[in-house]
Amino acid sequence: MKTLQSLAPSTFLFLVLHATSAKSIRPELKLAPPLNPLGAKMEGGVGLQEIESYSRFFDFTDKDKDGKHSKVEYIDNGNYLNPQSRAGIFNASDNDRDGFVSRAEYILNRIITDEAKKIVQAMDANKDGKVDRTEFINQSMPDKKLAAQVFIDLDTDRNGILHIPEYLKV
Fold first, then answer.
1. How many CA atoms lie within 13 A of 155 on its CB side?
2. Nearest-CA neighbor of 22 among 115, 111, 114?
3. How confident is the prediction along the chain (170 residues), in pLDDT tens digits per residue?
4. Neighbours of 29 (CB within 10 A)
5. Are 46-118 and 124-170 in the same CATH fold?
6. Domain boundaries, the chain
7. If you write DSSP's letter for every residue of 23-91 in order, what string do you get?
């Protein structure tokens, strides 16, 4: 119990929300089993310090302090990246499609996004910022036939190159 008392309220809130309503904040992934060999751990692979860091950033960008991001607050009035990028992040984060991004939705999206960056960068053998079919098959998983099929599923624009946004889109 002492551990729970030492958690910041935002971290404790995330853990409670996740434990009690994970289905409402976690997107359904068709590729989850094949992504496990890539190193995908999603929220199971993040520590409390990272969650607290995401929570602090959420609070910083929650200008009206109502515990959620509206489109106006996040997209229109944001001052990082560009409006198109912020809209993409917002839409990816709003799992329940209610027009708002809750703290739990935001944190889950950050966990998944940061993990995706690490996974894709680890497969980028020549460090050119993209993963081609050969790199993916050679770097991703022992079952090369499965790796080839997963690459086809991830390469949504069918150009033979995998970028982080494509990985995240699937």
1. 18
2. 111
3. 444 444 455 544 455 444 434 443 444 444 455 566 666 655 556 778 888 899 999 998 898 999 999 999 999 998 888 999 889 889 889 999 999 999 999 998 888 888 888 888 888 999 988 899 999 999 888 889 988 988 998 898 999 999 888 877 76
4. 13
5. yes
6. 46-118, 124-170
7. HHHSPP-TTHHHHGGGT--GGGG--HHHHHHHHHHHHHH-TT-SSEEEHIIIIIS--SS-HHHHHHHHH
- Choosing among 1.20.200.10, 1.10.238.10, 1.25.60.10, 3.10.20.30, the CATH entry for 124-170 is 1.10.238.10
CATH architecture of 46-118: Orthogonal Bundle (1.10)
